[in-house]
Amino acid sequence: MMSRSYTNLLDLASGNFPVMGRERERRRLLPRVMTVPGSIAELDDDQAHSVASDNPSSLASDRMIIVANQLPLKAKRRQDNKAWVFSWDEDSLLSQLKDGLPEDMEVLYIGSLKVDVDPIEQDDVAQLLLDRYKCVPTFLPPSILEKFYDGFCKKQLWSLFHYMLPFSADNGRRFDRSMWEAYVSANKFFSQKVIEVLNPEDDFVWIHDYHLMVLPTFLRRRFNRLRMGFFLHSPWPSSEIYRTLPVREEILKALLNCDLIGFHTFDYARHFLSCCSRMLGLEYQSKRGYIGLEYYGRTVGVKIMPVGVHMGQIESVMKLADKEGKVEELRQKYEGKTVFLGVDDMDIFKGIDLKLLAMEQMLKQHPKWLGRAVLVQIANPARGKGIGLEEVQVEIRESCKRINEEYGKPGYEPIIFIDRPVSISEKIAYYSIAECVVVTAVRDGMNLTPYEYIVCREGALVTESGTDLSEPKKSMLVVSEFIGCSPSLSGAIRVNPWNVEATAEAMNEALSMEEAEKQLRHEKHYRYVSTHDVAYWSRSFMQDMERTCAEHFRRRCWGIGLGFGFRVVALDPNFRKLSIDAIVSEYSRAKSRAILLDYDGTVMPQNSLNKTPSAGNLLISSLHHSLAIEVYDPLL
Description:
Structural class: alpha/beta
Oligomer: single chain
Strand order of the largest sheet: 5-4-1-6-7-8-11-10-9
Largest sheet: 9 strands, mixed
């Protein structure tokens, strides 16, 4: 059941935090921190002392709460339609990352289901998922869900993060305040589910992807010392693109309420840091390989770590594909042919149409491949109602038809387009027989297709009859320079997918390269992929989050601000507020005095200055009152 958790939101709201079961005997590791809106000066020294804490507990006794838009579960109705049947989604990154966490660490998932559950069934389903899978479902109201996911997430954030600006109002691309409000409401729903099960003294919270970028503020307002990380699985755009978002500062400030923020590549992290610098005036520093943003006394960690694949799962599926005879079946089907392979989601940013044009151009420029080279393009079903998806699908089908009519002949089609659901074992079988994988996405957060292909080509498969089909290990890659995995694949042939002629030449080069060079590149890639798998990624993120949080526990913290302006101010343990009486007394006794007045950046950094000062007294506003400070010296 819900051990180590808060089950009554009314108790939370009133500040009466229940102690449950074995928690009664547990020593309080981290004293609760008071959240006080307003200025720091409103707290006295006694209150400041009360927030000092012990060091955080070790990982072995902690729990990880993973929050994402969707739970790593599959769901379907029973045949009698009387109940739901659930199972783990083994392909989900969220279920795979557990391998990198300590074995004795409890993992709890919070997210939505991929199916609609009738409101009268939701309580029973929630209890079932909690008991059997340690999953807490978030059931968003339909009125919020559509504007949240299909609206703000897909039409605005997803498009903008992939460098598509809303130049026209078609398809709802322009900023819509109601969609933003739905996004905030959905994040608040998620925060309520987290609070229901959260023990802030022992739990880590790891938030995933752009759907939940303002969730950190809701949680930080409630628990100032909560250990919290965020990882973005999509690209982060350049500051010139991001600054067009009307709620740009709200999202940045919300993310900065995390302790650690992760990105797949250096470029994504660099763009994020540039946004924080240009829009919030923040500075960052890099020490011993760690990047930190200084934010009101806290150092928010920024981590660069591309995710990897689950080696064990791929190897087990390879054995299944061989057992089912799929590899041998495909080898016979494409005997005498050299296979290019593309595996992409049906999405406007995957560049499938550009890949088809490059294949056409290669056949035109290098007719020696006519009748010999085949491009097998697997198009996974679209994940949502993407912008322009129907137009792209029509264009792809027309290109396939045109190329096959022009360059095909009886018994040979240069383009094999598969737009049906493909099982994992069948996809692995295609990886095993492909000479080269081509990825021409115009923008993609990571893309693990090349990694999966490399692992499959390393495996030695045998037929059911026992004949060894293993060959010298080699795997050729033509990859877009705009995808997250590109920097880690130094042996791949990188291309600008918009340059169709150059991509065609790269495809020809991949097939024409010397065998020894192909093997050398494959060995280099496999060493990296096998050592930087999903477990390595999650373990590395977890270690950095613990290290960053440990630094914050050494400081004294106050929560201030309203709305998305809320932040935690962290000060040195030796900090003491200035006493007005003491200042006046010392000033009166002093024989010589120096008053420093400046407005050009000598005392304060330029980016923190108010560029339009009034001619009167300096006015300092707090939440409850305004105080006019006038410098007056009766001794002068």
